[in-house]
From TrEMBL:
GO terms for biological process: phosphorelay signal transduction system. The modification 4-aspartylphosphate is found at residue 53. SUPFAM superfamilies: CheY-like, EAL domain-like. Gene3D superfamilies: 3.40.50.2300, EAL domain. GO terms for molecular function: cyclic-guanylate-specific phosphodiesterase activity. Pfam families: EAL, Response_reg. This is EAL domain-containing protein. PANTHER family: CYCLIC DI-GMP PHOSPHODIESTERASE PDED-RELATED (PTHR33121:SF79), CYCLIC DI-GMP PHOSPHODIESTERASE PDEF (PTHR33121). It comes from the Bacteria.
């Protein structure tokens, strides 16, 4: 049976009310209206909590608590009173005899909460006493400012030759901050006079005190027994089995977050994490620090990937708690690999680190299992990206020109320029592959400038040959639009070739416009004012809403081939395209349909009053010298 709660109050009605209130919550209660009888009842029933009135005849609450504490210092005392002198309350508080004051009439929820907290504190104090009595390691109990409350013999022996024994923080120098409120992890400290290196760990925390265990260390390796900074040392000491697993964990953007938060914790970060990690003792692991924000973890033997995920859950939760106390929110990139027999471990580490970098770039929050095929693909992308840096200078790009048929005039008087790339190492590459890479790594601005300049050269050639090419459509990347110099660069290039902006149609993807509406509107308005024609490309692949079109300075809507491909076999597809064309015309804009491959599609689009079409039926993308065949 649990120890009862002792109630003392000279008012019988209040005493009965308190008894009923507590028994509703299944507390055992012992009570009396005479504080002099309370001492005998306490010795008999040994309650953990005493709730007493303050103003009582013969013996007040303060005097009762003082007598009770003489016989049982561990009992938690709660004063429940309608009135009490300030000096009396101050005396109780200063004597550290009272757990909490509650006023009459009491709030039941507050009363229950206070009792539970008092019971918890009593349990912690009992546990603290047991630990102090039964542990051979140096143990010390201190209050919030570091004054020593209690200690065991081993601690006394440790600090025997030290001065200022009364205050814990005057005895030790700490490697990191020493705020006890943040003392929920192990710390490294040095005894000031003797220079003994120690590990200090919070063993138990109560309402007013901290129980710390002190472990003297003989060397740096004792501080972090499974921690390695040398790959060679790591590989020499790990235990390789048939079920070994290697994990790479990277903390994203840690340096930036440290600078922003002005918290210089990036030095030895993983040392602190490992020292703090609340991991299962059954899981043996070693760690190799790759950098201040990245480490390799080695699990000797696991039975399944579920065990790997459990280890990572515990590790990451521990790391998060470490940083939350620094007011830093962090995210991770994690990859792991099951070690194959005879696999060279040094190469495995390098591959996993590279793989984790790609995981970091993708910003995924999953634990990614290592994939050699995916790594090869990413490495190939990296090589392609490197080759793109010099592609313009090496004259590896070239243009193809796809004609557009004007359905009103039944003539070809415009075209779209399409970039192609042929590299000696990688051969021909599709724009769908290399353009996203160029955008990601920033080469697209230089490539886009080259495309516009080549389009200008083509127009100048056609003018010399007196070809009636009224307009050339050029695709513009969102990253070009984001360039502050983009508008001026465009105008400078066409001016250099004595051409007019009206001869160019700039195609912008629908998704970019919608995702960056205000930015796109400002930049497109500048281009429009100069004289460029603006087209929304790939209409039908994104939100496909014409509501935003009226708010933008655009001239042309290009219907994506995905909307066109079934208009000759599906009435609903045909009706959809018809409605789009009608609505676009209502906005006084021009409609271009792309991806035309059959005569039936062409005839239907002509019936639906589409303005221009392009596709393999009209003409494939061809080189500059071949394009004249379409015009003649």
């Amino acid at each position: 049976m649990n120890a009862p709660i002792m109630l003392v109050d000279d008012e019988i009605d209040i005493l009965k009310s308190l008894k009923r209130t507590l028994r509703l919550q299944h507390y055992e209660v012992v009570y009396t209206d005479d504080p002099r009888q309370a001492l005998g009842l306490i010795q008999e029933h040994k309650p953990h909590v005493l709730i007493t009135d303050f103003r009582m005849p013969n013996m007040n609450g303060q005097e009762l608590i003082q007598e009770v504490k003489k016989h049982d210092p561990s009992i938690e005392c709660i004063v429940l009173s309608g009135q009490a002198d300030y000096d009396d309350m101050k005396s109780l508080i200063n004597a550290n005899n009272t757990f909490k004051f509650l006023s009459k009439p009491w709030n039941n929820e507050e009363l229950y909460t206070t009792i539970e907290a008092a019971l918890t504190n009593h349990h912690k104090n009992e546990l603290k006493t047991q630990i102090l009595r039964n542990n051979n390691a140096p143990l010390v109990e201190v209050n919030t400012i570091g004054n020593v409350i209690d200690c065991n013999y081993a601690y006394t022996e440790l600090v025997l030759n030290e001065v200022n024994k009364g205050n814990f923080f005057q005895l030790f120098n700490f490697e990191s901050d020493k705020c006890l409120d943040d003392f929920t992890e192990r710390r490294i400290a040095t005894l000031k006079s003797s220079g003994v290196l120690c590990q200090v760990e919070l063993k138990l925390k109560t309402e007013s005190s901290y129980l710390l265990i002190i472990k003297p260390l003989s060397s740096e390796q004792d501080k972090y027994p499974n921690f390695y900074q040398s790959k060679l040392g790591f590989l020499e000491h790990i235990n390789r089995t048939d079920n070994s697993v290697m994990i790479c964990l990277k903390i994203r953007d840690l340096l930036v977050k440290n600078i922003i938060s002005n918290t210089p914790i990036y030095s030895d970060t993983f040392k602190k994490i490992i020292d703090h990690a609340l991991l299962s003792e059954a899981t043996h692991f070693s760690m190799l620090e790759i950098s201040f924000d990245q480490a390799i973890f080695w699990l000797d033997s696991v039975q399944s990937e579920i065990e790997v995920h459990k280890f990572l859950d515990e590790l990451i939760n521990s790391i998060k708690q470490f940083f939350i106390r620094k007011n830093i929110q962090i995210k991770f990139s994690v990859s792991y690999t099951m070690i194959e027999p005879e696999q060279p471990l040094s190469e495995a580490i390098d591959s996993l680190v590279i793989y984790t970098q790609f995981v970091c770039e993708s910003r995924t929050d999953f634990y990614m299992r290592y994939s050699q095929s995916l790594l090869s693909e990413k490495l190939n992308e990296h090589k392609v990206s490197e080759a793109l840096f010099n592609a313009v200078d090496n004259d590896e790009f070239y243009l193809r020109f796809q004609p557009k048929l004007n359905l009103n005039e039944h003539s070809i008087n415009s075209c779209e320029v399409l970039i192609r790339w042929k590299n000696t190492q990688f051969g021909a590459n599709s724009p769908d592959y290399f353009i996203p890479l160029a955008e990601k790594d920033g080469q697209i601005v230089k490539i886009g400038t080259w495309v516009l300049e080549q389009a200008c050269i083509a127009l100048c050639e056609w003018q010399k040959e007196e070809l009636e090419i009224q307009k050339v459509a050029v695709n513009v990347s969102p990253y070009q639009l984001s360039d502050p110099c983009f508008v001026q660069t465009m105008y400078s290039i066409i001016e250099r070739y004595s051409l007019k902006p009206e001869q160019f149609e700039l195609e912008i993807t629908e998704n970019f416009v919608l995702e960056n509406l205000e930015q796109a509107k400002t930049k497109l308005l500048q281009l429009k004012e100069i004289g460029f024609s603006i087209a929304i490309d790939d209409f039908g692949t994104g939100y496909s809403s014409l509501g935003y079109i009226s708010k933008l300075p655009v001239d042309v809507i290009k219907i994506d081939k995905s909307l066109i491909e079934n208009i000759d076999s599906s009435k609903s597809a045909r009706d959809l395209v018809q409605n789009v064309i009608r609505l676009v015309h209502d906005l006084e804009l021009k409609v271009v349909a792309e991806g035309i491959e059959t005569v039936e599609q062409l005839e239907i689009l002509e019936q639906l009053k589409c303005d221009e079409v392009q596709g393999y039926l009209i003409g494939k993308p061809v080189l500059l010298e071949e394009f004249t065949h379409y015009v003649y």
